[in-house]
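Anyone up for a design puzzle?
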């Protein structure tokens, strides 16, 4: 007969309590316990250090004194109230006003007295989140910068990519024959941009110790962490710039050279005035990689401008367009450079977190690779129809692959996503890769413009003579004035100026045409947009070899609901 289990003693309970106290006390993550109204009831040393305060000071404060009440925190709080637990990246404020990005995971529970308490784990992910944002910018920067031949527009676009995702203020200065010119400025508050658009001294200041002048004089980067310790003295040659920056509230900056053909042609400068966390060394390689893309775009724009200026006749205009397409091909190949930058950034981020960034980096890489393929294909299409590798393909298999590719993306955006096939037979003689590319372009657009709670539907209808593919969404529709232009090369509507190079629909039309088919669009502000692709059914002859087996006729819903 087994010995009965002894009941828990007070000593056992005290030992268990002490064990948990030590775990919390020595946790590298911040841990905070608060009441339902935000009063901080307890905190560990890691949390206190994160805010630059003592544990006693934290416990005398309210959570509202520490949290920047932005959209991210509102979503986090709503989720926790709804489900009892939540996780998200929010912005917290330190004692001196500095911001940091923190991954917060929290849960609500009942205290021994019956009160509702919340425990929150805090982890500083400022470098990680900044790295992710920089990777996203790098993935989209190449095509965006290559999409315009207007240098001024290109540089404005470059600063707009950076603000407010990575910095509060961004400027580009170029060295010109008659001196230095500030050619682009972006500020998270457009009303405050004027302070940085001032007419600066056209000459470089010899002996400058910080900022754009130092960078353009030396070809070396300049990073300032905090004004109290890093700004040079007021006797420095660039003291006017320093005083101006201080007056504008700049707390931190990173400035890097724009270099082409081993020559410094200007400087890219990013600044923080408290809206984003202060910069550190971890951001430097990412900004340098972005500066390489901008310098390449400037160099290409200069060459193209020279070609256009030198040729005025019709024949010369044709030659200039040819040169543009040649440059486009070179740029598309050079865009593989951002992938190397992403690898470098991943290495830096991996020192702190080896697993959390894997999917984010993979998405950035896939996006960069897709944009490269689009630009190369766009250049190839100028020489004639797209070459196809036709095979007999099972439409269900294509539908399954698209469902897998876009299902998670739709779920992450809270958009209903349905895929269906109908009719018989379900075989089509097509280039599978090109059809996937064509439909993926349409699905990506549909998901981009469909609001949360809306729906996107992909349908394949097969008959003896044709395969009809429709992509429908419940988005806001396409304005009537834009409808005649949506398939134009490099054309973008007002609602998509910051998205890609304006090639997706043009390429999709080229793929449909190469198959002997058509693509059309119907759109209405009240019901959304529907793209319809019609491909003639061309099956192989018996001598061509066996064909894939098709499923029986009828409708087959693969995922989601309408």
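Challenge accepted. My sequence:
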């Amino acid at each position: 007969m087994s010995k009965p289990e002894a009941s828990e003693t007070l000593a056992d309970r005290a030992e268990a309590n002490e064990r948990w106290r030590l775990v919390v006390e020595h946790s590298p993550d911040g841990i905070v316990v608060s009441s339902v109204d935000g009063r901080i009831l307890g905190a560990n040393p890691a949390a206190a250090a994160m805010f630059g305060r003592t544990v006693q000071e934290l416990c005398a404060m309210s959570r509202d004194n520490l949290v920047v009440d932005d959209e991210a925190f509102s979503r986090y709080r709503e989720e926790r109230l709804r489900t009892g637990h939540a996780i998200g990246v929010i912005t917290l404020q330190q004692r001196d006003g500095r911001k940091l990005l923190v991954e917060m995971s929290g849960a609500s529970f009942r205290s021994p007295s019956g009160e509702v308490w919340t425990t929150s784990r805090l982890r500083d992910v400022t470098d990680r989140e900044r790295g992710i944002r920089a990777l996203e910018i790098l993935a989209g920067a190449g095509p965006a910068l290559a999409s315009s031949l207007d240098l001024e527009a290109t540089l404005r676009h470059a600063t707009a990519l950076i603000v407010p995702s990575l910095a509060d203020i961004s400027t580009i200065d170029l060295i010109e024959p008659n001196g230095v010119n500030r050619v682009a400025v972006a500020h998270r508050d457009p009303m405050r941009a004027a302070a940085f658009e001032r007419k600066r001294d056209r000459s470089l200041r010899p002996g400058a110790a910080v900022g754009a002048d130092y960078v353009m004089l030396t070809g070396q980067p300049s990073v300032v962490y905090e004004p109290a310790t890093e700004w040079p003295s007021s006797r420095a040659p660039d003291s006017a710039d320093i005083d101006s920056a201080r007056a504008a509230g700049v707390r931190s900056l990173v400035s890097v050279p724009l270099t082409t053909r081993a020559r410094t042609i200007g400087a890219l400068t990013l600044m923080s005035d408290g809206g984003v966390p202060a910069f550190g060394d971890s951001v430097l390689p990412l900004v340098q990689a972005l500066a390489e893309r901008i310098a390449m775009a400037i160099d290409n724009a200069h060459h193209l401008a020279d070609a256009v200026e030198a040729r005025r006749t019709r024949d010369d205009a044709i030659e200039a367009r040819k040169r543009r397409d040649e440059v486009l091909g070179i740029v598309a190949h050079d865009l593989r450079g951002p992938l190397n930058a992403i690898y470098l950034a991943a290495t830096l981020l991996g020192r702190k977190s080896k697993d959390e960034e894997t999917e984010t980096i993979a998405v950035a890489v896939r996006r960069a690779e897709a944009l490269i393929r689009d630009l190369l294909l766009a250049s190839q299409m100028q020489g004639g129809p797209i070459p196809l590798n036709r095979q007999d393909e099972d439409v269900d298999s294509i539908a399954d692959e698209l469902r897998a590719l876009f299902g998670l993306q739709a779920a992450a955006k809270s958009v209903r996503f349905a895929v269906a096939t109908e009719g018989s037979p379900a075989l089509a003689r097509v280039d599978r890769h090109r059809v996937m590319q064509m439909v993926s372009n349409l699905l990506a657009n549909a998901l981009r413009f469909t609001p949360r709670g809306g729906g996107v539907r992909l349908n394949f209808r097969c008959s003896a003579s044709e395969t009809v593919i429709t992509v429908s969404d419940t988005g806001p529709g396409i304005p009537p004035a834009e409808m005649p232009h949506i398939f134009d090369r490099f054309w973008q509507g007002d609602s998509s100026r910051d998205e890609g190079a304006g090639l997706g629909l043009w390429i999709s039309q080229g793929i449909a045409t190469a198959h002997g088919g058509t693509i059309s669009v119907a759109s209405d502000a009240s019901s959304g947009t529907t793209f319809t692709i019609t491909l003639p059914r061309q099956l192989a002859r018996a001598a061509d070899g066996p064909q894939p087996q098709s499923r029986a006729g009828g409708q087959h819903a693969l995922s989601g609901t309408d």
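A detail worth pointing out: Confidence is low (pLDDT under 50) at residues 1-6, 540-562.
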